[in-house]
Amino acid sequence: MANAQFGKETSERGEFVRQPNRFTDRITADGSSGRRPEAGRYRLVVSLACPWAHRAVIVRGLLGLTEVISLGVVDPIRDEKGWRFTLDPEDRDPVLGISYLSEAYLATDPDYSGRVTVPALIDTRTGTVVTNDYPRITLDLSTQWREFHAPGAPDLYPGPLRAEIDALIEPIFHHVNNGVYKAGFATDQGAYEKAYSALFAELDRLSARLEHSRFLMGDRITEVDIRLFTTLVRFDAVYHGHFKCNRQKLSEMPVLWAYARDLFQTPGFGDTVDFDHIKRHYYVTHPKINPTGIVPVGPDPAAWPAPLSRV
């Protein structure tokens, strides 16, 4: 489609249909996958702008895996070859020795022609991608890497709560996490309005739940809070205007705004947010949506760490 940001991922009805994850190998505690957790062997490549990658950054930090799994950060601005390592000396990742994440993708599958995405977990011995399956990456960090968790690390995916967590994750993914993209990348009015309506209906449901609960699963932070947070923290800066998700700003939804700020002020959350990377990525790398490439100055991020009180 001529007007689509990602033509290969746009249906004939003008709906954004996200591509499947190409690399889905796993690292499992018992080695049944052919790979076991191993300190220093794997490198997590992320963009600080990307909400899908942001989840893995938060989970890696909360679980105390920062010295176990190294972190590579790409430039927030993608060029025609994709994610670049221009933040590193000589524009090359110092561990992997590559200039573009696409080099690792092609080393894994020379015929790969899809969009190169983050996060990607790379085997530093072979330079190949183990997985870019972002929903599974964080779950496996919680469940398969336990031997390396820091003492006192939270259980973000507790066994007794998994069915309820999974039941929340599904609509949050479809209508919120991916819903903002369905609205922003739609090329048909009807497709946009459908995504817009589903997004705010789900946000209203979540708001009602959080009126009586500090976090989505009560008084403890779990995987589902992390998944919702990475969308909420980008909402006013990007999705409200750039993706036309403009019924209300997050800051105009009192319950969700307080919840998101509560998480932001929790160690391991706000210190992983980079509003500069977030805004420059979205407003510069989506020329079909923002052809001028102008990056807005606001909103003021000072409200995020401001003191708050939640009942």
UniProtKB/TrEMBL annotation:
It comes from the Bacteria. Residues 158-282 form the GST C-terminal domain. Pfam families: GST_C_2 (PF13410), GST_N_2 (PF13409). Residues 1-36 are annotated as: Disordered. Residues 23-36 have a biased composition (Basic and acidic residues). This is Glutathione S-transferase family protein.
